[in-house]
Amino acid sequence: MDTSASINFAVPNASASGFVNFNLIPILTGSNYKQWRAQIEFYLQFNQEMDYCLRVEKPAELTENSTVAEINAHAKWHKTNRMAKSVIKFSMGDIVRGSIEEPETAIDYLKNIAEKYKESDIAEGARLSKMFNELKFSGEGNVRDHLLSMIEINQKLRDLDIGVKDEQVVHMGLQSLPIAYSNLRSMYNAQDKKWDLNKLISVCCEEQERIKKETPMILLLEKPKEKKEHKYKPKKTTNFKAIRKTTDKEGSNTFKYKCYFCKKVGHMKKECSGFKAWMAKKGYDKREKTPEEV
């Protein structure tokens, strides 16, 4: 269970008396560090001067010769430091809180948290930079949404201190458009006055409407679908016996057998008289003898 969810700093709203509600601070989970840091600093500034320990260095230890002002300043610093550390500690999730060492002072606590998320900021910056440079408009959809996406990505890069100026965003935005917007790019490069982001969006939207009107309408007629044979349907087999019989009947006058024994054309081997004589000579003649032969 997240202990931060059960803590409620019941303070008035900022619009009523200069205080802000602790519940408005987002729980630090790892991906919302920038937002969390801004809300923490805002809360500490407007609640009981808890940012005093962040603005003033830690006072020296008290001695017998310490003045009343030094004693009061010492007490105030330590009190605001304890309160600020509590706010920082309980505005983090359990996993994040357990991974960060808790130092003696609140300002060091914030430094440790910043160092923890420094590496993740570098990776996030590289990812956003690649997305910003590779973002292209295909011509489909709304060009306004495309340009707003580029502006949003650059704003995130600016939060990481690696964003570009608006003039560069205008240039990159025009370069990300398809070839149909080439006239718009040429017009921009030919003039001396540069556009701001609002001008870029307005001009590109007008150009998109002009392109839509000038593009001829093409009616695509749907071709009739061809009937495909079922892939599991058995193929028709050829009856070679029937073909052979038909061929024998039709071409009996032209086709002649060849004997494989005597090599003569006109009869088969089993009908060859020479083959029969050879079989009788070898004693392979198994036919029944006639009464004359007996």
UniProtKB/TrEMBL annotation:
Domain (CCHC-type) ranges: 258-272
Presence of keyword Metal-binding: yes
Gene3D superfamilies (alphabetical): Zinc finger, CCHC-type (4.10.60.10)
Classification via SUPFAM superfamilies: Retrovirus zinc finger-like domains
Domain of life the protein comes from: Eukaryota
Keywords from the named record: Metal-binding, Zinc, Zinc-finger
InterPro entries, per database record: Znf_CCHC, Znf_CCHC_sf
Gene Ontology terms, MF aspect: nucleic acid binding; zinc ion binding
Keyword RNA-binding: no
PANTHER family in UniProt: OS04G0629600 PROTEIN
Protein name: CCHC-type domain-containing protein
Organism annotation: Centaurea solstitialis (yellow star-thistle)
Lineage: Eukaryota, Viridiplantae, Streptophyta, Embryophyta, Tracheophyta
